[in-house]
Amino acid sequence: MRKLIFVTGGVLSGLGKGVVAASVGLLFKLRGYRVSLQKIDPYLNLDAGTMNPYEHGEVFVTRDGRETDLDIGRYERFLSEELTADNYITAGQVYWNVISAERAGNYLGKTVQVIPHITDEIKRLILRPLEQQDAEIGVVEVGGTVGDIESLPFLEALRQLRDDLPRMDTYFIHLTLLPRLTSTDELKTKPTQHSVKELRAIGIQPDAIAARSDRPLPVEVREKIARFCDVPVENVIGDPDLDSIYAAPDILHTQSFDDLISARLGLPSRTTDLSAWDERVHRLRHPRRTVRIGVVGKYVELTDAYMSIREALVHAGVAADAKVDIKWIPAEAVTRDGPAVHLDDIDGLLVPGGFGDRGIEGKVEAVGYVRENHIPFFGICLGLQCATIEFARNRLGLAAANSSEFDPATPDPVIDILPDQKAVAAKGGTMRRGAYDTILAPGTRAYTCYGTDRISERHRHRYEFNPAYRGAFETAGMRVSGTSPDGRLVEIIELPDHPWYVGVQFHPEFRSRFLSPHPLFTCFVRACLRERK
Ligand code: GLN
Known about the structure:
- The protein is an alpha/beta fold.
- The chain folds into 2 domains: 3-279, 3-Layer(aba) Sandwich (Rossmann fold); 287-531, Class I glutamine amidotransferase (GATase) domain (Rossmann fold).
- It has 19 helices and 23 strands.
- Strands 13-12-14-15-23-22-21-18-19 form a 9-stranded mixed β-sheet, with helices on both faces. Strands 5-2-6-1-7-10-11 form a 7-stranded parallel β-sheet, sandwiched between helices. A 3-stranded mixed β-sheet has the order 16-17-20, with helices on one face.
- Helix 8 links the parallel strand 10 and strand 11.
- Helix 1 runs parallel beside helix 3, helix 5 crosses helix 6 and helix 13 crosses helix 15.
- The longest helix is centred in the N-terminal third of the chain and has 19 residues, at 114-132.
- It starts with a strand and ends with a helix.
- The mean pLDDT is 96.
- The structure holds glutamine.
- Glutamine binds next to helix 16 and strand 19.
- Residues 353-355, 381-382, 385, 405, 460-463 line the site of glutamine (GLN).
């Protein structure tokens, strides 16, 4: 069995296609199917690794080290599964594959063209997760908006797939926006009509229209969309603004969307067991207490740049029966004003990953403040590195200690370039990336949180804790609680004489799921609750 559900978008970008795709994937998983979720990004970058967080939000990293769009993270959080490089396609990768094949002589004598060579490669990449991950249902989200020049080859490939495969094996969902005119308080359907017209011009008639609006869909609007866009009225699905993205599966399920898709795909009728999911949504909506956690970062005015961190805190909050109120603190403001004014009302501090020296001094001072004031601290990647710098300066007396990323001339590079990164000049896809094992030392906080002595976590970095300084740190009271299996690379540091102070070189946020929060985040949030003023 092999079924494909495509999610396209119209009218505007940023309507939440990823949430719709993830929700549909989840509903089918909960019906007992093996589901794969895949994102297509029509831009020419080979991966998301070199893009601007202001435009695209965070870079998500898969287990096998691919730097992807943040929607892949959303899929993992909904499905509770680890996806791979195969679940992410960019136009850059498609063209790269085709051009490499042309250079290798695979098309000798032929003119290499968008149709069929590019579209064939797109189809091959779309079908690959179904084959390699043994999935029965593939949900494929096409990034961008219908009508964009760059998404044309992808939509053409989808159109061909609908004809290549039995009609019962493909399903098209088109997500649009219904703007509301304030003067008449009306939801307008015209942009949806135009966008469906655009899709039909490419040769695709959607099976269902998901209509995003600021409130539930009135019957007459539903009927109008059905009439003008030629879909059955029950296939016009309301996608209203919600207090939480985790409520979306239930909204779709309540409109029998899973039944409708299932019937059209010729699948047997089954029930969708949303009980465990809904129970968590209920707990998310009715927390017993609140805890305030500060996140000091460079891009805090745009929290999508820290999406996995934000969601991991939400998941951990549900586990701890608490609402995590995140205080986003710009690192440069801490540099300017000093830490006290910004951190005096938080119950815990998280310093996330990052690159470049903007705001670094503020982050270092923030860690010093919470270390001295016994406020729980969680440092992730660059966060661990800032903690190391702070400790070196203030506890080891190395006043000019730094990372060689920020000060190549520092006399004390307590954070230094990884040996195998020294010769790397190219920027794209060259960091130490993906899952590596870490061995945990018994009796440490990390060991207690994980409840095991060997873990696997995802990485994305070029610099590391400089092993030459390890002895000095340990003598001054810092504990190395996790290392690479060969013992060389410091993966986790902690301070035993602090209420909760843990820094990790990897990114635990990439493995937190709505149904199974990450143990380190849960431990951290619990510590913040315990130490709460
Ligand atoms: N810039 C640091 C490094 O490359 C930290 C990376 C990160 O936080 N992901 O090592």
